[in-house]
Write a structure and sequence with these properties.
Structural class: alpha/beta
Strand order of the largest sheet: 1-2-10-9-8-7-5-6-4-3
Oligomer: single chain
Distance between the termini: 35 Å
Strand content: 15-25%
Radius of gyration: 19 Å
CATH topology of the largest domain: Rossmann fold
């Protein structure tokens, strides 16, 4: 990999320079990020991946003032988000959090990241993609891995009260692919000052093939059932024929072919995967972006991360560990997930010194 090396168990950029002196600098990954070492007993990729589901101990955010936000879309759908405010008041940039496939604002990993960031003084916005969580009752259409226009339409509705101190973004899994694609589409015009993705499927076709492998049967069934539930809700804009097909769909590929592609103007599932992929947009990203991924992720192949020439864009920092699973990264030595510590360090290095008050 060009301009990359193995450092403390992670692949990190060796020469992260800004394109121009006026640009926000990119932190050196080797200098700031802790090494990842799996926490006992979560030593395997699958245990790292399913730990959150097994323990089901979501952080309690009730100590942080909450506010419900609605984002009307041009077609009449309304996307819902929850903003939480730090106990000491908002003195740092707002962090926009985007969930993954079949997730929503109360997904464990989203609440866990919000809790850590809020304790560091960052207000957080947990964004429900179209048709997910609270957005399910206010939307006829559903999200997909490339629907970046929704994110842009919502961002344009922010006012100075929310965005006046800056904007950062974090995308998990499918939300990470969507975020990277959006960053590349926007280039230097992007409203975010920095971004992080965790376990993003930057080549959706590869992720589809991987999740449908026999060893991933339980994961595949869980995801497919969630997708069917989202698509089959009473107010969803699918045809009677599509609704009748739902019970007969046996794979994520069949779901994307029969439901996602026709609902969004794609020629088929493969056309959807190609057009939704973030990989072709990475070279165009114009803001400092950290891409976290584990080589042993059982859902998302690491090969696209290893094959990409990261030196093509000095704004990008790949942080790739040998272990960690899919949105896992349950590390030893700290109760906070390793990727959440890396997110906080990355954003902290991007902020003006006057705001680094914790």
């Amino acid at each position: 990999m060009a301009n990359a090396e193995i450092a403390d168990g992670a692949i990190a950029r060796t020469d992260p320079r800004a394109a121009r002196a006026t640009d926000m600098p990119v932190p050196d990954a080797r200098a700031g990020f802790p090494p990842f070492r799996a926490r006992l007993p979560w030593f395997t990729a699958d245990l790292q991946t399913v730990r959150n589901f097994l323990l089901r101990r979501a952080p309690d955010l009730s100590a942080f003032r909450a506010e419900r936000i609605e984002f009307p879309m041009p077609d009449g759908d309304r996307l819902i988000a929850t903003v939480n405010w730090p106990a000491a008041g908002a003195r740092r940039a707002l962090v926009w959090l985007v969930h993954g496939i079949t997730g929503w604002e109360d997904s464990f990993y989203l609440r866990r990241s919000a809790d850590h960031l809020l304790r560091l003084g960052y207000p957080t916005l947990r964004f429900n993609l179209r048709g997910a969580g609270p957005s399910a009752s206010t939307c006829r259409l559903n999200y997909h891995a490339g629907r970046t226009e929704d994110l842009h339409a919502a961002l344009l509705q922010l006012d100075g009260r929310l965005a006046g101190r800056g904007l950062f973004a974090v995308g998990f899994s499918l939300g990470g692919n969507l975020l990277l694609k959006y960053l590349g589409e926007q280039g230097r015009r992007c409203l975010f000052q920095g971004a992080v993705t965790v376990s993003a499927p930057i080549v959706p076709k590869e992720a589809q093939r991987c999740i449908m492998r026999r060893r991933n049967g339980l994961y595949h069934r869980y995801i497919l059932n969630g997708l069917k539930e989202e698509a089959g809700r009473p107010n969803a804009a699918i045809t009677p024929e599509q609704r009748a097909k739902l019970s007969r769909i046996r794979s994520v590929y069949e779901f994307d072919e029969a439901i996602v592609a026709p609902a969004n103007g794609f020629a088929g599932a493969d056309d959807y995967y190609e057009q939704a992929a973030a990989l072709p947009h990475l070279a165009s990203i114009g803001v400092p972006t950290l891409a976290i991924h584990a080589l042993d992720d059982p859902w998302i192949p690491a090969r696209p991360y290893l094959d990409f020439d990261w030196s093509r864009n000095r704004k990008l920092t790949p942080l790739i560990t040998e272990k960690g699973g899919h949105v896992g990264f349950h590390g030893s030595g700290d109760g906070v997930a390793w990727h959440d510590r890396c997110i906080a360090r990355f954003f902290g290095a991007l902020e003006p010194p006057s705001r680094r008050w914790v």
